[in-house]
Task: structure prediction
Amino acid sequence: MLKPASIIMDFVPSEKHCRNCNQVMPIKAKYCLDCGQKYTTGKVSLWQFIVDLSDAIFDIDSKTIRSIKGLFIPGRLTTEYFKGRHVDFVKPLRLFIFWGIVAFALLAYRSEKFFNLPSAQKSIDAAYSLRYNAHLDTVSAQLRKEMRWNRNNDRLLDSIFARMSVNTLDSFELGYFNLTKSGDPFEPLKLSTANVYLDDPDKVLDQLGINDFSSRFQLKQIIRMTRDPDNFIQFIIGKLTWMVLLTLVMFALVLKIIYIRNKRYYVEHLVFSLHCHTFLLVMAALGLLIYDNVSPAWVLSLTQIAIILYFFLAMKGYYGQSWGKTLAKMIILFFSYIFMASMALVITLFIGALLF
Result:
């Protein structure tokens, strides 16, 4: 005859199911072996909610702090990543995106001062002032016709209208590429301030007799950018993330070529490139923060020196070659990088000008 205790043991479950993925779990398991979620009945106490929230916050903070500290030691983050230490640090792409957002947000915020852009409203006011001056000239000429000729009257009118007129830029020198023209396709063009800021671009181009699609499209985009340079710069800044991504992908490809004998996978060079460009973004963000308090020339020079030195030490630390070989490859990489960054910037500006 079975004892009561043995009957109870027969009904004790030997397994349970994960509430997230429904995977079978051992009865004593605290975490699902399939999805990693902690076992729960679905009910969460207030204390457990606070504990989970605190763990999440401090885990993110400590990971971020370790990643930033590691970033300032050239080559360390990449070395640790390929040793398999993924949990202790922020993932390379996420770290790059975070600092990209910070750097470009600061650049967008400081764009008007950093790029010394003219105010769009001031330019519109200048266009209206030009129209006002033209109207004054018309009134002056009409009064001279209606009034009996008198030298004193002329002097008086000149004095009055000189005081009433407003000093402003009366024209813009623009240019475009006329693809229907043989020889040099560049066409200089002079437009009045009023034409640029107040008039409908299509009507202006009709008056100038510019009819081909390419020329009209170029000029309308140029007028739009001239009318609102601040928004154009903001638009381009929004596309700079893609420029940097394109540059770092090509940077990793050059690394693959110059370290071909190391037999490393392309993804290793790509992660190294991500970490190096993340440092570049950090330095750019710091430079923008101290831009007002330090000479801009000093900020730019120190930032460039720090980035070049960092890239060199990171290559030495991660790839482990001699100082001489690292220096030679750094020189090749430096000139390749200038070319790649210039090409990426031209492509970004070109696409930005087309889409603005």
